[in-house]
Amino acid sequence: MRLHRFYIEQPLGEELFVEQSELVHQWISVFRYKCEDEVVLFSSTNVGVDYIYRITSVNKKEVALSFVSEQKNILPNKNITLCMAIVKKDTFENIVRYATELGVSKIIPVLASRSEKKNLNLERLNNIAKEASEQSGRGDVPVISEILSFNNALEEMKGNTNIFTSLYGEASSELANKGLLKNNLTLWIGPEGGWTPLEEKLAKENNFHLMKLTETVLKADTAAICALTSLVLN
What we know:
By secondary structure, this protein is an alpha/beta fold. The protein has helices at about 20-30, 90-100, 120-135, 150-155, 170-175, 195-205, 220-234; strands spanning about 5, 15-20, 40, 50-60, 65-70, 80-85, 105-110, 145, 150, 160-170, 185-190, 210.
């Protein structure tokens, strides 16, 4: 039987006492774990490894576990930051889920000129990223940044290789042939309606590399999946 994976915010050792109220509640009330059941845990302090534990005692406030074995988990092979223009709440949450599964290291919500109303719940976005990492077998959880204006994000990403999606850019294969898709990448995805001419102008002035995805206009979530897949595979 496949064991469930859980991200935990504490170091992992031989013996473990879990007191995180939400996690304890989930284990007892949702999964109905009891003594001798096993779980898989991963942590930001033990990156790259899944730890399998056996439950030794359970109560409403704490679960005690003992170490059974360990196994390698999956870490992204590229450092990719996603500067994602703010779109509708549900769409943005889906993009966080897809981006986590595809190996993004950091997600920055960007307030672009054509962005939807700012109504993002950063705590919820962090939980979505954590759950997507748990389910996908990924060994870490991407960072969800505070919301930045377009200009502030532009300033913060200077020094990275910036890939800016545009109807007037080059194909990802052409950028890959130039050696531009290796590592420390920042991918910029625009809102519904696209980037404004001024935003594209600023991107060019800052030596961003424009990347064209398809001949057709894509919705923001489709564009994110398409672009990230191109970066991961090239």
